[in-house]
């Protein structure tokens, strides 16, 4: 492809005109053009590999399902085809798609300033840090804002190394922490790690949920003089299939880390801000980590937003030179406005409580389906509305995912466990929508059982 400035301008104008046109004024031809061009552009300018994996292409009719509009727990494609969303943007849409209070806050801030000057003090970032410090357990106090969960994990790792002066980490098998070179070093599945080797040295992987393996690893590391900065884990493993650890796991991790003088990092990127039925995943076990990582839902599904927060004594290592870790766009005013509004929505609407109650309802109904249709659903895991439907094998899992998509339910598998399909909707999803999803799921089970 050669440079063509006039064509670039025309291509930009094509989509800008489409998004500025009221939806009821878009013609069928314009909508079909958007769907067609989207497939072509993924093929030619992003990664054609996506097209063979996306059900929106492989199960499409004449035109691929092309995302266009969403509200609450309903997603519509550019041709108006409607889906109930139980994927939730992999946990992004905890308050629902386009929650009006969050959208309004971002629009209001956009009318003032969309980014910082980089020199004057920015009040929204300071206020959001204060609010999060008041929400987090124990004495978590200081934080840094970024754009993605991966950046938050990388920042937490860097902080741990700077504070302890040690290079090593202990992480978990099937754990998911992001795909930058730093976070990827923690990730617990070979298919994502091997092509990027070598990664960071001195990362030890142990089974998730087994605190004694962590203690043995730290004991051996001490014996051979291998420095370990931190133990990193998700409160509940998300991409592994909503795996809940034993109740003594997190309390024992706290004890073990204190005994060996290493930091405890909780990756709350997926579990944080209400997803599992409490504000943070570690709240289930009343544990205060040394560092916490946030992302996904923090920006309310409106603006990308992440953060890592730590105890004040740990943060002191950044005080002499606060420019040791910086970002140009992280914690920008639009993202902070979205996060502040989302936190208000979370507290006003008690979305953690909604997740707890609706999650219990869903898991009960799934257990009934498991009994009615043996040989399909092996187990149900998770807490709140971070639920894993664990199927007997990959083939059954694929058939269920495809069957749900054909019945206009939007969901997906997990990245480190192919047998698991997530049930991870907006925490505000209605019971009527949940029941409709369960009806369509049962219909899918019936088609497979025949």
From TrEMBL:
Native source organism of the sequence: Desulfomicrobium baculatum (strain DSM 4028 / VKM B-1378 / X)
Domain of life: Bacteria
A Pfam family assignment: Aminotran_3
Catalysed reactions listed for this entry: taurine + pyruvate = sulfoacetaldehyde + L-alanine
EC supergroup of this enzyme: transferase
Any single biological process term in GO: putrescine catabolic process
GO molecular function, one term: taurine-pyruvate aminotransferase activity
Subunit description: Homotetramer.
Protein name in the entry: Taurine--pyruvate aminotransferase
NCBIfam families in the cross-refs: PRK11522.1
Cofactor(s) needed for function: pyridoxal 5'-phosphate
Gene3D superfamilies: Aspartate Aminotransferase, domain 1, Type I PLP-dependent aspartate aminotransferase-like (Major domain)
SUPFAM superfamilies: PLP-dependent transferases
Keyword annotations: Aminotransferase, Pyridoxal phosphate, Pyruvate, Transferase
Known pathway: Organosulfur degradation; alkanesulfonate degradation
InterPro entries referenced in this protein's UniProt entry, alphabetically: Aminotrans_3, Aminotrans_3_PPA_site, Class-III_PLP-dep_AT, PyrdxlP-dep_Trfase, PyrdxlP-dep_Trfase_major, PyrdxlP-dep_Trfase_small
Similarity-based family: Belongs to the class-III pyridoxal-phosphate-dependent aminotransferase family.
Transferase listed as a keyword: yes
The protein's Enzyme Commission number: 2.6.1.77
